[in-house]
Amino acid sequence: MLAVSNLSAVRDDRLLFAQLSFTLNAGEIVQVVGANGTGKTTLLNGLMGLAPLEDGEIFWCDSSITEYPTAFKKSVSFVGHLLGLKALLTPVENLQFLAQLRAQSYSINAIEAALAKVGLSGYEDVPVASLSAGQKRRVALARLFLERASLWVLDEPFTAIDLAGVLALEGWLCEHAQQGGMILLTTHHVFSADFPVRRLDLARYRPETY
Questions:
Q1: Predicted confidence pLDDT, tens digits, the chain (210 residues)
Q2: Closest by alpha carbon to 155, among 83, 94, 99?
Q3: Facing residues of 79 across strands?
Q4: Can you say whether the dihedral through the CA atoms of 134, 140, 146, 149 is positive or negative?
Q5: In this structure, are residues 44 and 199 in contact, taking their beta carbons and an 8 Å threshold?
Q6: What's the CA gap between 8 and 21, in Å, rounded?
Q7: What is the rounded CA–CA span in Å between residue 147 and residue 106?
Q8: Which of 82, 110, 158, 196 would bridge 106 by S-S if both were Cys, CB 3.0 to 4.6 A apart?
Q9: Is the four-CA dihedral 13, 18, 23, 24 of positive or negative sign?
Q10: What is the DSSP letter of 56?
């Protein structure tokens, strides 16, 4: 379980949100919503240690991620708004490089299977610079099927994805949750009324509401 308690964040001397608390349990999908500039990306980056958070605590399986960061990082796959791909490397090479950053390694067969899962069969050895924006995002999303982390943290994962990819991604999210995984994501994508997502509205935590 991920538990967030009384978080606040500041950007450019402006308080984005305060007293933000929520939990994310096995089998849940939580969508962070709010107008532009309310701190959605800041929240996700803060959880991943990529942006400072002013106050509050974050717990993973009842342990502080500040005191035990390794256990948390091993349990999470993060696909940010910036994908972290090297333009001159191929999808296979990028996934090998990103695995090394996590002190992991995957067989070529596993990497090719992950790329096939996201619809990139035939593009394994094409430089990422030659791919479309949607294909680049698919390369980044392929990590989810290699790392097999219990928690997915995704910042705007539907960006530049075509309709077929959107439907596939919705299915992957549901499948991961049904298998006991957890997903925290930001997106402007509108899910259907029966999509199993819980919404966390950052407008409730704007400073002027207190």
A1: 999 999 999 988 889 999 999 999 999 999 999 999 899 999 999 999 998 899 999 999 999 998 988 889 999 999 998 999 999 999 999 999 999 999 999 999 999 999 999 999 999 999 999 999 999 999 999 999 999 999 999 999 999 999 999 999 999 999 999 999 999 999 999 999 899 999 999 999 987 644
A2: 83
A3: 154
A4: negative
A5: no
A6: 10
A7: 9
A8: 110
A9: negative
A10: E
Query: How far apart (Å, rounded) are the C-alpha atoms in residues 87 and 77?
Result: 21
The whole-angstrom separation of Cα 120 and Cα 102 is 23
Q: How far is C-alpha 126 from the geometric centre of its chain's CA atoms?
A: 25
| Separation between Cα atoms, residue 131 and residue 138, nearest integer Å | 10
And the tokens for 162? 């075509």
Q: How many residues are present in the chain?
A: 210
Contact 96, 106 (CB under 8 A): yes
**Is the distance from CB of 183 to CB of 176 less than 8 angstroms?**
yes
Q: Amino acid identity, residue 16?
A: L
A 10 A CB-CB count for 91 gives 27
d(CA 139, CA 42): 23
